[in-house]
Amino acid sequence: xxxxxxxxxxxxxxxxxxxxxxxxxxxxxxxxxxxxxxxxxxxxxxxxxxxxxxxxxxxxxxxxxxxxxxxxxxxxxxxxxxxxxxxxxxxxxxxxxxxxxxxxxxxxxxxxxxxxxxxxxxxxxxxxxxxxxxxxxxxxxxxxxxxxxxxxxxxxxxxxxxxxxxxxxxxxxxxxxx
Length: 178
Fold this sequence. Notes:
Structural class: alpha+beta
CATH architecture: 2-Layer Sandwich
Shape: globular
Largest sheet: 5 strands, mixed
Number of helices: 5
CATH superfamily: RutC-like
Low-confidence stretches: 171-178
Number of domains: 1
Mean pLDDT: 87
CATH class: Alpha Beta
Distance between the termini: 36 Å
Order of helices and strands: HEEEEHEHHEEH
């Protein structure tokens, strides 16, 4: 079985360092993720292009294909955040759910197609473990006028208490080697 990292490499995707949730001087009043038991809840991430927020409404300034690419880029950033949260993407049991907001013009009806950009990437990286429940909502506005925002829930193989034991053991092992 190939690892999530091998599949990312085959897709020519290098996960970025976890960037701040938004940038440009904005200080977020939330955390990037919360772990509870063996679930990770990742805060919404906004679409970016070339490191800058990708803004505009689908069906007006942005096409469905461009929105789908934006959703894929958000998914890559979510994977980077997930790696920071759990340490190893191979510990993902499954992607549980995506909640996707698409900044939509009044007549745009393809939010479900935009989210496929994220869905397809998660299938490519995690295979059947990447299949998830989802909601795709066309909304009148997203923070900063961004075109897409996605939040995600992930189930991991390792629970919160097992992580604490793992970390304690690693610290103990480090101490023994000093």
